[in-house]
Amino acid sequence: MSVIVRDDGFHAEDYTGDRALYIAEDTAPEALPDDFAGIEMIRVAFPSFADGRGFTLARQIRGRGYAGRLRATGHVIADQYAMARRAGFDEVEIPDDLAARQPEAQWMFRADWQDHDYRSRLKA
Asked: What residues have CB less than 8 Å from 74, skipping those under 6 apart?
């Protein structure tokens, strides 16, 4: 099982569609599709919290105009939640054992990711 993390806390899986695309962490950005028409959700794999290639893929996907649901899945830790959101992910899917080690409060502590973005402070 898994837990879905969003800015408002932990959730159960609620995606019931059948038009999701899974992208492995070792997918080269130039190998991404040019057109995401008909794709309801894209899941980008994170096999390890130390593997940040998924963040680059998220930026590339958003840069190509994908406006649908973008989910990081795997071993993303609470400390990386703000980075995931800034990279373009809407949510993070983590295994139950990780959710037990890093409870909802740790993720919620980072849910104010927009308030602490250094780029927004530079605009002031």
From this structure: 45, 46, 47, 48, 93, 94, 95
Distance CA 117, CA 32 (A): 28
Specify the pLDDT at position 26: 94
Biggest alpha carbon–alpha carbon distance for the chain = 44
Judge whether 35 and 65 are in contact, CB under 8 Å: no
Segment 91-117, tens digit of pLDDT? 999 999 999 999 999 999 888 755 555
pTM, 2 dp: 0.88
Q: Which residues of the chain, if any, have pLDDT below 70?
A: 113-124
Count of alpha carbons within 13 Å of 76, Cβ hemisphere only?
31
**How far is Cα 29 from Cα 59, in angstroms, rounded to an integer?**
10
- The fold of 2-123 is Rossmann fold (3.40.50)
Contact criterion met (CB below 8 Å) for 63 and 87: no
Tokens for 62?
Answer: 């958003």
Is-contact 73 43, C-beta < 8 A? yes
